[in-house]
Amino acid sequence: MRVRNRPAVLRTRYYTINSDKEAYYYSLIVCHVPFRNESELLFENETTEDCFIRRQRDLRPLQGNVSAEQFNHAELIIQQAVAHATALNAARETDVGNAPMLCVGEQIINDDDNFCEDMEERSVMSDECFLGSIRGLNIQQKDLFQKVTTAIENDLHTQESQLLLFITGGAGSGKSFLLKLIVEHIKRCYAPTVDILLKPNFVEVGSLTGVAARQIFGKTLHSIFMLPIEKKNTMTYKKITGQRLENERRKWRYINWLIIDEISMVSYENLRIIHLRLQEYKNNDKLFGGVNILVFGDIFQLPPVKGHWCFVQPPWFSAEVNLWQQFSFCELTINMRQRNDSEFIDLLNSLRVGELTTAQLELLCERRHVPLNGEFADGVAVRIFPTLRQVDDYNDKMSKENAKLHRTYRINAMDESREVATYGKKPPENVIPKDVNNCGGFLPSLKIGVESRVMLRRNIAVSEGEITCEK
After folding, report:
1. Domain-embedded: residue 6
2. What range defines the domain where residue 169 resides?
3. Separation of alpha carbons 157 and 172, rounded Å
4. Is residue 182 domain-shared with residue 226, that is, in the same domain?
């Protein structure tokens, strides 16, 4: 036997909670729980995580002067470093020049419904799911993903660069899928740069409406940037000061990325307020406070309810820089949802630009299906109208039909004055505007009946004394 001149290095596979949860907890149990028979470590039908939690008191520390909190902190730092390396290595492998060609009959799964996400820990994605999602990107998506990665690497190396990018494409082109993947990529790349105990946030995701924000696990732009309520078709920008400004600057200290979905619904006036607000948050006079911004959406879809299109600068702002013209353009044209139905893809693209042919219209009518019975029968199914007046007329009609069978209630708004002299008191009737557009869109009263279906259309901060309501 030959004696070693230097200590041997014990090599073992390192598991993370994201890559292999069962193996991760089992490795901790084997290393830190005393045992004589390995088969007796776990109870029957017990997961390794449950066993780890049950035997926490039996854990044997590596050193007597290392606390469980310190050990856990070090473990999290290692996991962040592994996730960081995984993200950057995966991004380098997405070189579009080396993209593999698909074989006949082979299909890439790229659909929002198949996206791996955990509702409870939505910011955590397993390495397997993350890498699988990257491999499923088409050549256009890989090119965009690489642009984002380059911007991240430049930012991490403190190079002066800012990415302002508008990503568009028709339905089924994978915009939402790519958005969620980019969010995960940003979190993984920036995680090791800040102590995890600070619980930093590196990317903010938002959309104009609550429904759209929920789809991307984000927030409403009103809550993120304190956008003013529209009154008389105008929006007045007010700077924030004091403790509120300090809180926002602390929150945005590590945030270098902003992602906005459904940009078509964001007016230029709101985009300008976001630009000014970011300058406040970051204490930076650069465009959008120097924050990298990705905006997703299809301009052929819903326009802003009030104000100008995001790409139309109002004349009274002509002396300022045109914010929209600072964005680069990226279009996703490959449909990932109806890959095997080219005829239907052409139909959808023609419908998107309002140029349906007679043959396409006939095909669309053939695929129309209106159930005549069941809970989705005509008359019960949700209908979509182009104007609010038509919506209100139809809702009134359905409410009258519902009132024949069920009791109907009227709920009146409770108005309070915010003026200093009359704060908290009900203002006189002649002071309250009759036009709902001058009241932030809130109606003076709501009619609601038993078995009525309610859709929330106003998302207002309760802390400001306003409520979420609409019929």
Report:
1. no
2. 110-332
3. 35
4. yes
